[in-house]
Amino acid sequence: MLWKAGKERPKEDPAVRAEQGLVVSGIEVGYHRGPAILRDLSLTVGAGEIFAVVGRNGAGKTTLLRALSGLLPCRRGSVRLQGRDFTGLSAERVARSGIAHVPAGRRVIPGMTALDNLKLGGYQHSRTALASALDDVLAMLPALATWGARRAGTLSGGEQQLLAIGRALMSRPVALLLDEPLTGLSPAYQQDVLEEMSKIAKGGTAILLVEQNVRKSLRTADRGMVLDEGRGVLTGAAAELLAADRLRDGYLGVGDARQA
Amino acid sequence: MSSITRSAAYRGWRRRAQGLQPVRGPLGFAVTAAVFMVALSGAPDTTLMTISLACVYAIAALGLTVVFGLAGMLSLAQAAIMAVGGYTVALIALDTIGLLPALLLAVVAGAAVSGLSGVVGARTKSHYFALATLALAEGVRLVLVNESSVTGGSNGHPVALVSLLGLQLADPRYFILLAVPLVAGCAYLVHCLRKSRFGLSLKAAAADEYMAKAAGVAIDRSRTLATIVSGGLAGLAGALLAILNGYVGPQDFGLGAAVLLLLIVVFGGASSSMGTVVAAVVLTYASRGMLDLAEASGLVYGLATLLLLLLLPGGVAGVGKAVAGRLGGRIRRARTRQEEA
Amino acid sequence: MAIFGQTIISAVAAGAIYALIAVGFSLIYQTTKLVNFAHGSIAILAPYVSYSLLKLGLAMPVAVLGGVLAAAAFAFVMDRVVLAPLRTRHISVPILATVAVAIVIEAVTSLVWGSQPLYLESLASDEPWRISGLSITPNQVVIVGITGAVVLPLLWIIATTKVGRAMRGCAQDPEVVTLFGVSPARMYLLSFVLGGVLAGLAGVLIAPVTGLKPTGGLELSTIGFSAAVLGGLGSLPGALVGGFLIALLINMTQVYLSAGYGLGVAYLVMALVLLVRVRGLFGDDIEAVRQV
Ligand SMILES: Nc1ncnc2c1ncn2[C@@H]1O[C@H](COP(=O)(O)OP(=O)(O)O)[C@@H](O)[C@H]1O
Ligand SMILES: [Mg+2]
């Protein structure tokens, strides 16, 4: 009972889990006045579930996360979290209402210490709530405590990724959005990050993982979606996706197969 | 479809135009300058004085386009560098060493002092450079005011009368005969710098310092060189101003003048020398008009600056581009409509 | 020796005022990455307003408070009206706008209050106490006391509270902090208002000492910048220390070397720091010169 303290653990019934998670229906998203990047995209991430969206460079994965966290407006469709409508909220409001976004490239604040970065993640909390959130995050990611006093800019890529995830957890999110957390990490560190993710999901958080590393992310995820040119072309259980012909032809090249 | 045909036509035009490249540039600047001088021959004295001042500011602003326009380094010292050039011709024996050596000396002095700021600018980010140039400008002013036995202090210093081919240069009528060709020459020089590898490296460094470094651009050297070139032109402009006025004083080279020069660059746009010259004429004319307002001039001037920054994001050149873009868009839309019909 | 001691005493009083300027300037820089060339001009706005309020017959403390509030209000309006719309442009555009604001303030003050120096009454008596050959005025004590009472709590708040962290985070990555529920626009505004309060305080404290003239704004700015750069741009404790050091250098130069070049030393220090050690005494090396 680490994450939503005081709330009961999600039921195993998928419908209930979905109701307590993130429901995206039919969104259309684009930049400024440009063409739509995402069209009629729908997905559901239940509480305690890891949902992986995989796709090539430029498929619209980052755009999807930016839209969900309020950095980009949705032109159509709706975003709901635990039944509450999030569509059209500003990024600050979304952040205070239960969605945490770990952006691509980690984006830790380089000039601040790791600990201050974590505390910044809990901006919305009162002093006491901040202290307890910090305790919980450090308990979950003990590595953070060991280099807490160092400035984030001096940490290695893997350490920065863990810090970015920890910082997002500081807000005690209902849904956690992760943008390519494995990029640029050594295989050992990739494994670490994936394991931490599973742990977090077990605590009841809905995790939306966006990745290019199809094999690794689908192995950890419960369900997933293949995103191509802004449309969800294939959705299903992660294991089924991994076995699907289309995915094998299009996304799991020889190189990737050998690596795995 | 339409964009493809357009770009093909454009490329053809470019190819033909490039054949003329070595002649076209200097010829263009020379013809413009000549037309300008003929048009001015009958103008009244006050207009000639304004044009003379505009030439001075245009030269200094052309220098500033290299540092501020291309390299994105905000310099508040350009007016102070002009002072260096002005005091150089004021303090040397102009009548014995002659006009050309005096101007050259002013260029060298301006380049050297400006290069000092370049040493800071090469290593640091833009806002540190702005502070360093403020320190340089105030330092120059302090020396000018304090060393009154040499510089005349806040009262300023007279400048010997000089003539060129028997024509008195303190008279705006004859001054422009020297200044307009110099403006054309400087405009062409900056035009060439902009197109050169040096100009490209400055632009690359301004856009993304780290990428530029990674691509092997010697940022430090380019930036220092930019301040030196810019300082040379400011020195020349200051010398010309001193000769025109027959006098130099610290009040002509204050923060107000520095901001006027920055504004000229902002509204001339970084991408065209002609834009800088036009902006110099317009803004000099406007700021001369404000002199009559005495104390209120600062107010009008500051507010005008703010309004221009807020309301005209792309400067004068930006307005041109926006209009062209909108027209182009309309034409393209009309064409596609025709094709569909 | 007595001259030396006396120089130190007046340097401490002047240093407190410069520190107020420098801390405000650095606070704005630390949050917005903007060099506010109008900072000293905002500072002299406060004593001008106080002067008029005194003329209207208000009591001294009310007039001083009114002046400080006016400076803060001006900073508020400046951020909303001038700087907020320029935030998406290249950083040199808003910086140029702050220079224009400085020119506007100078023009307005000389139009409204004239270009002749004005003199304000000190907050406390200038009748010196004599302590073992040195004289200290109650006003000097009040200046240092007010600075301490305002700056030290502020530094503590910025260093330890969530708002302080958010302000620091804003400058480095304004987009990412919105993901934690921070509104950068509000942080920018807050830093400007706090900076305005500090500048206004510095203004009302320095006006009785040096007199009040429209050109004093830029002078105060450059001293404040030098102090902030010496301490390390963006480091608030650095700005505090830098203020005292610059005052010491200026006063020493004026007493022992040349009266005219006191300010020159401030410029020289700024230039030297930028040349030799950009991050100053306590600045952030990651901030000053980033490596590839
Ligand atoms: N700031 C932006 N403005 C306009 N278009 C953008 C912007 N960012 C991304 N795009 C476009 O959106 C599409 C999807 O990009 P993105 O979501 O970043 O892809 P992914 O994260 O899957 O690699 C791309 O075609 C890209 O060109
Ligand atoms: Mg992406």
From TrEMBL, chain A:
Residues 16-254 form the ABC transporter domain. Pfam families: ABC_tran (PF00005). This is ABC transporter ATP-binding protein. It comes from the Bacteria. InterPro entries: AAA+_ATPase, ABC_transporter-like_ATP-bd, ABC_transporter-like_CS, BCAA_Transport_ATP-bd_LivF, P-loop_NTPase. Belongs to the ABC transporter superfamily. Transmembrane segments: none annotated. GO terms for molecular function: ATP binding; ATP hydrolysis activity; branched-chain amino acid transmembrane transporter activity. SMART domains: AAA (SM00382). Keywords: Amino-acid transport, ATP-binding, Nucleotide-binding, Transport. It comes from Spongiactinospora gelatinilytica. One of its GO terms (biological process) is L-amino acid transport.
TrEMBL record, chain B:
CDD domains: TM_PBP1_LivM_like. InterPro entries: ABC_transp_permease, LivM-like. One of its GO terms (cellular component) is plasma membrane. The keyword Transmembrane applies. It holds the Pfam family BPD_transp_2. The chain crosses the membrane at residues 21-42, 48-69, 76-94, 100-121, 128-145, 174-193, 225-247, 253-286, 298-320. It is found in: Cell membrane. Keywords: Cell membrane, Membrane, Transmembrane, Transmembrane helix. This is Branched-chain amino acid ABC transporter permease. It comes from Spongiactinospora gelatinilytica.
